[in-house]
Amino acid sequence: MVTNLTGKDIFFGTANDLSLLKGFVVEPSRKGVLQDVLKEGTHRINPFIQSVSIVNIQSQRYEFSGDDAIVFITLDGFNISLEGTVEFNILRGAAPCLSHEVGDMEDIMKKLILPSVSGFARIEGSKKSATEFIVGESRQIFQNQLEEFLRQICQVWGISINSVLIRDIIPPQEIAEIIRNRELAQQEAKKFMQQIEQAKSATELERQKMLALQNRAKVGAETEKITTEIKAKQEQLERLIAARTEQEIADVGYHTAVAEVKSKLALAEAERKVIAEENNSQAEILRRNVAAFGSGELYVKAMLYRKIAPRIESIMANQGTEQLFGLPLRKISEDANRGIQK
């Protein structure tokens, strides 16, 4: 932070420009604190014209604990001690005005941070009962609300709030034991409830296992049943196909036999007709031959003569015998003698 030791000031009859950070900083031509700050490094400064003040803009911590703990009265009339830490840092552009208007880092903590925390704790703390700060989520909510409040307040001054942490909330001893016992009882109840839930979960898990085994056995039985039914249907189908095949083979054999019988009957009938025709032809020829000879007896004799006569060489018989076996031996003998004489 740079301060001009020389230049125009209020004694020259011209006041500072109030629009420039409420008049706490001045223009470069006037005497007073300048708005621009010097960055880290080496700078050439005339100590008779300007002076330089070092302002720490690194992160700072303000702890309120022990004797500095914040005490406030709750809604039900109990004193609560609040211990915690606020981490903050000064913005570079706000350092000149803040240092000139408020003071150094100690002044910033005591004039801005501490009053803001104490005021918020007393106002908001008086709206809640003591038990709300000991158990439940009120403690975290109170911490978040405090951090948001400090950000809004300190942002106007050019201070950045990095974090707010409430480490401990100390209740009065007359209710601490009661609350502690109740908290232990609630923890035991939660423990028992967890054990009950675990037992229920174990029971449910065992039930699910038994259901899984039952379903597995059921699926296995159904699978075996389906397999047996499919196998039985397959065997039935195979037997049906075999029976139909045998029936078709038998039908083919039957039709073949019928065809063979019909063929044999047709052949026999043809042979019968041929034989009958042959017999009829021979009978017709015989009939005509008999008719030609005049009678059957004459035809038979003629056939007999035709067969025997050419092979007779001699006949030994009595003179009085005129016929032998129906043959006219006398005539034959005469014809034979006549032929010898010739």
Brief digest:
The protein has 342 residues and is an alpha+beta fold. 58% of the residues lie in helices and 13% in strands. It has helices spanning 95-101, 105-125, 130-134, 138-157, 173-293, 296-308, 329-341, and strands at residues 2-4, 32-33, 50-52, 60-64, 70-73, 79-90, 159-170, 323-324, 327-328.
Task: Report the major sheet.
Answer: 4 strands, antiparallel
Structural class: alpha+beta
Mean pLDDT: 79
Give the low-confidence spans: 335-342
Percent of residues in beta strands?
A: 5-15%
State Rg. 75 Å
Care to describe what's here?
With 342 residues, the chain is of the alpha+beta class. It has seven helices and nine strands. Strands 4, 5, 6 and 7 form a four-stranded antiparallel beta sheet that branches. Helix 5 (173-293) crosses helix 6. It is rod-shaped. The protein starts with a strand and ends with a helix. Mean pLDDT is 79; it is low at 335-342.
